[in-house]
């Protein structure tokens, strides 16, 4: 019954996605009115309607006085609607065309949020799946976005939140490195496991994953018969208790 309910939920989700993909023709109207209507939809949280109107403005008036703000609004509503690829494409276009825009700190912040969201999967959350061994590329991109924001705009309103998110992303990346080292250990690739552990400890010192990697490193040394190296590693484990 549980699986049947989940399948029904998935079917309903696909049906709703199909329905929402049908585009509504936006009638011709002055840009000021069209933008006002788009803002109303945005403020009401009607993301699909806001997207339709903003996309119409973007295509009909690409060089008008609303152009930059329309693109900024599209970045936001694409993100809120879960259209992450469209959000990233719009962000990258905006950065390319407006590299010195006054809201560039916000654009970088949204890029970080969007890349972070790509690492989150609804089904993983539903089944409480450990994602530590998943491809960390979106996480690396997000970390780079937030790092760039903090470096370029240290006094930005978004800088402190970006720093906190970098801390969480760092732990996520460290867990991926740990999962990889554990994979090598289970495959009896002792040297590869040791190298991965050492890389993790150098790149992400102070993380829980770095401490746990010492156990993998010690076991790999043991399997290689390197008693002195194993002893030194176990001494480090003693100095860094859980």
Strand residue percentage: under 5%
End-to-end gap = 41 Å
What share of residues is helical? over 70%
Principal-axis shape: elongated
Q: Number of helical segments?
A: 12
Domain Outer membrane lipoprotein BamD-like: 27-235
Keywords: Cell outer membrane, Lipoprotein, Membrane, Palmitate, Signal, TPR repeat
GO cellular component, one term: Bam protein complex
TPR repeats: 68-101
Key terms for this structure?
242 residues; mainly alpha; 12 helices; 0% strand
Write the layout of secondary structure elements.
Layout: H1 2-20, H2 31-43, H3 47-60, H4 67-80, H5 84-97, H6 104-118, H7 122-126, H8 137-152, H9 159-186, H10 190-203, H11 208-224, H12 227-239
Helix pairs in contact: 2-3, 3-4, 4-5, 4-6, 5-6, 6-8, 8-9, 9-10, 9-11, 10-11, 11-12
Report on the structure:
The protein has 242 residues and is mostly helical. It has a domain at 30-81. 75% of the residues lie in helices and 0% in strands. It is built from twelve helices and no strands. Helix 9 (159-186) packs antiparallel against helix 10 (190-203). The radius of gyration is 24 Å and the shape is elongated. The two termini are 41 Å apart. The model is unreliable at 5-9 and 122-128 (pLDDT under 50).
Condensed summary:
The protein has 242 residues and is mainly α.
């Amino acid at each position: 019954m549980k699986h049947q309910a989940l399948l029904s939920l998935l079917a309903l989700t696909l049906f709703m996605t199909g329905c929402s993909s049908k585009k509504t023709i936006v009638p011709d109207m002055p840009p000021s009115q069209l933008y006002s209507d788009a803002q109303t939809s945005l403020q009401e949280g009607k993301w699909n309607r806001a997207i339709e109107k903003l996309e119409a403005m973007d295509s009909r008036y690409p060089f008008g006085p609303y152009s930059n703000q329309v693109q900024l609004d599209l970045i936001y509503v694409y993100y809120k609607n879960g259209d992450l690829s469209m959000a990233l494409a719009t962000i990258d276009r905006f950065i390319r065309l407006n590299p010195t825009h006054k809201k560039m700190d916000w654009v970088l912040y949204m890029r970080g949020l969007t890349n972070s969201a790509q690492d989150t999967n609804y089904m993983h959350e539903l089944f409480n799946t450990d994602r530590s061994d998943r491809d960390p590329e979106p996480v690396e991109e997000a970390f780079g976005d937030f790092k760039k924001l903090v470096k370029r705009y240290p006094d930005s309103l978004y800088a402190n939140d970006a720093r906190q998110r970098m801390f969480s992303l760092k732990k996520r990346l460290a867990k991926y490195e740990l999962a990889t080292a554990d994979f090598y250990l289970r495959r009896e690739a002792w040297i590869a496991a040791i190298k991965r552990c050492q890389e993790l400890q150098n790149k992400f010192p102070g993380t829980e994953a770095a401490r746990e990697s010492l156990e993998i490193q010690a076991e790999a040394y043991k399997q290689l018969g390197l008693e002195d190296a194993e002893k030194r590693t176990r001494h480090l484990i003693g100095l860094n208790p859980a």
